[in-house]
Design a protein that fits this description.
single chain, alpha/beta, Rossmann fold, six-stranded mixed β-sheet, four-stranded antiparallel β-sheet, binds adenosine-5'-diphosphate, binds magnesium ion, ATP hydrolysis activity, transport
């Protein structure tokens, strides 16, 4: 079993502002792992730190056994890691096709075309919209475009920041199902989510962050039925 991500004692933040206070977390090949936690606890910062866009202080980040802490984003992309930010994840004034092309500008055209086609196989809703500007898409379609674009470089490890935030329940369900389908195709998935119940329902394991640290980790099935966690993090209502 390959350990795709192995993080220990990770500290970092934004310039001199420390946000992550020593995170230990791992993701094995083929796993779907969800990080949950209250607003402002450092979920987005954690993903940005892994992807080389927040300030690394110390600790270890290993990708498939290789120490990559503090590496530049382009080197991480070359290793097969992709990141879908929560906001500003498409270029609104560009067409769907142009957005997808931006995902693989260094690829030779035939390969780029086949990668785009393969991404669209996962997100068929985008095919009829190829020439429309991304600004004209619904929130759910925009999220699909952002994920499709991340797929163009053929990643095997996908980092997603709240992919279902602000979407209708129908789109939330669809997006999580498609992400699960990507996992079934061999892509390892790490999600940070507010919409915790839905994402956990597809996850193998979960982590709970508080104040820039892991305060709990367990199989997702256990987290989903833990009464205390339900009260504090998942809300009492069933989705
Ligand atoms: N660019 C930034 N510069 C300084 N502090 C930031 C920046 N972005 C986020 N923060 C702070 O980092 C903390 C964690 O934020 P974030 O990682 O976005 O939390 P979450 O994703 O769990 O809601 C918050 O206190 C937030 O205000
Ligand atoms: Mg966030």
């Amino acid at each position: 079993m390959t350990r795709v991500l192995d993080v220990s004692g990770l500290e970092g933040g934004y310039d001199k502002v420390q946000i992550m206070n020593g995170v230990d977390l791992y993701v094995d090949e083929g796993e779907f792992v969800t990080v949950i936690g209250p607003n402002g606890c450092g979920k987005s910062t954690f993903i940005k730190l892994i992807f080389g866009i927040a300030t690394y202080y110390k600790g270890s980040v290993k990708h498939k056994g290789q120490e990559v802490s503090g590496w530049r984003t382009d080197s991480l992309v070359n290793r097969g890691i992709a990141y879908v930010p929560q906001v500003d994840n498409v270029f609104p004034s560009l067409s769907v096709r142009e957005n997808l092309e931006m995902g693989g500008i260094s690829l030779p055209t035939p390969l780029l075309e086949s990668r785009i086609d393969r991404a669209l196989d996962m997100f068929e809703d985008l095919r009829p919209r190829m020439n429309d500007v991304a600004a004209s898409l619904s929130g759910g379609q925009r999220q699909m475009l952002a994920i499709s674009r991340a797929l163009i470089n053929d990643p095997d490890f996908l980092l997603l920041d709240e992919p279902t935030a602000a979407l209708s329940p129908l789109y939330q369900q669809q997006i999580i199902e498609r992400i699960d389908a990507l996992r079934a195709k061999g892509i390892t998935v790490l999600i940070v989510e507010q919409n915790a119940r839905l994402s956990l329902s597809r996850s193998d394991r979960g982590y709970i962050f508080s104040n820039g640290k892991v305060v709990h980790t367990a199989p997702a099935s256990e987290i989903l039925v833990d009464p205390q966690i339900n009260e504090y993090f998942l809300g009492t209502k069933k989705d």
